[in-house]
Amino acid sequence: MAARRLSSLLSLSYSSSSAAAATSLCSLGRLSRLQRGINSFSTSAAIDEPIKPSIQIDHTQLLINGKFVNSASGKTFPTYDPRTGEEIAHVAEGDAEDIDRAVAAARKAFDEGPWPKMTAYERSRIMLRFADLLEKHTEEVATLETWDNGKPYEQAANIEIPKVVRMFRYYAGWADKIHGLTMPADREYHVQTLHEPYGVTGLIIPWNFPLLLYSWKVGPALACGNTVVLKTSEQTPLSALYVSKLFHEAGLPPGVLNVISGFGPTAGAALCSHMNVDKLSFTGSSATGKVVLGMASSSNLKPVTLELGGKSPFIVCKDADVDKAVDLAHFALFFNQGQCCCAGSRTFVHESVYDEFVEKAKARALKRAVGDPFKKGTEQGPQIDNAQFQKILKYIRSGIEGGATLETGGEQLGSTGYYIKPTVFSNVKDDMLIATDEIFGPVQSILKFKDLDEVIQRANATSYGLAAGVFTQSLETANTLTRALRVGTVWINCYDIFDAAIPFGGFKMSGHGREKGIYGLSSYLQIKAVVSPLKNPAWL
Ligand code: NAI
Ligand code: MG
Question: Where does residue 221 rank: exposed (0-12), middle (13-18), buried (19+ CB within 10 A)?
Answer without folding.
Answer: buried
